[in-house]
Amino acid sequence: MHVTIPGRYNGPPTSGNGGWVSGLVASHTPVTVEQPAVSVRLHLPPPLDRRLTLEPGELTLLRDGEAVVASARCAPAPSGDVPVAPTLAEARDAATRAVTAEEHPFPTCYGCGPLNPDGLHLGAGPVADDTERYAAVWTPREVAVPEVWAALDCPGGKAAGFPATLMVLGTMTAQVLSPPVVGQEHVVLSWSRGDDGRKRHAASALFTADGELLARADQTWIAIDPPA
User: Which of 134, 175, 184 is nearest to 155 (CA)?
Assistant: First the structure.
């Protein structure tokens, strides 16, 4: 089958938002009871506004011609404890400490860019008096899988050290337990899982305003050199 990543779903200006693209590929990847999550690896910057080939299966592939842009397969659910979810008020307050448009290297990013008119505007900031948790508020306009993955994506990057360190998403493993509700405020929480050279590991989780866990993800981010 053929798919196109519309330009409004960008991360960096000329390539797709990693979470949204990963969610698109994940939505065509079958899962099992034993492996209820999907793990997506981004091999190349996803091109925008170009016809790509999506090959669903046990190993789902997104191709640009012969080049593999992304691959996905089912995986065990993300493990480890999830930190205590902030309240909606705490998440709103945390968002006031998010990166500004002037500070953001990709200010039109679909997930967290303040200047994308169609974006999610998920500016995650540190929870007050806590250097371990970052939070944002999200009110879904739709609950398609790519939207949920996009919501889990950028807050994880913030916890991994973006934008102090310029980085892009390398891999993301996510499980959606229940869909969010359109028009209702939700809380996105993220936290660091440590560094390994140029790799930065983070996790994120999506909650209702009442603290019910709806989805969670583990991510590996790759530090890149700033553009010349």
Answer: 134
pLDDT in tens, the chain (228 residues): 999 999 999 999 999 999 999 999 999 999 999 999 999 999 999 999 999 999 999 999 999 999 999 999 999 999 889 998 999 999 999 999 998 989 999 999 999 999 999 999 999 999 987 778 999 999 999 999 999 999 999 999 999 988 888 888 999 999 999 999 999 999 999 999 988 888 999 999 999 999 999 999 999 999 887 665
CA distances from 67 to 46, 86, 181, 220 (A): 11, 42, 37, 22
Query: If we measure between CA atoms, which residue out of 19, 182, 189, 163 comes closest to residue 94?
Result: 189
The set of residues, in sequence order, having a beta carbon less than 8 Å from that of 4 and lying 6+ positions away, is: 49, 50, 51, 52
Tally the domains of the chain: 2
Residue ending a domain, among 47, 75, 103, is 75
Expressed as residue numbers, the domain containing 13 is: 2-75
Tokens of residue 167, six digits = 């980085």
Instruction: Give every CB contact of residue 58 below 8 A, 6+ residues apart in sequence.
Output: 30, 73, 74
DSSP per residue, 92-104 = HHHHTTSPPTTT-
Helix (H) or strand (E) holding 206: strand 199-208
- Asked whether residue 139 is assigned to any structural domain, the reply reads yes
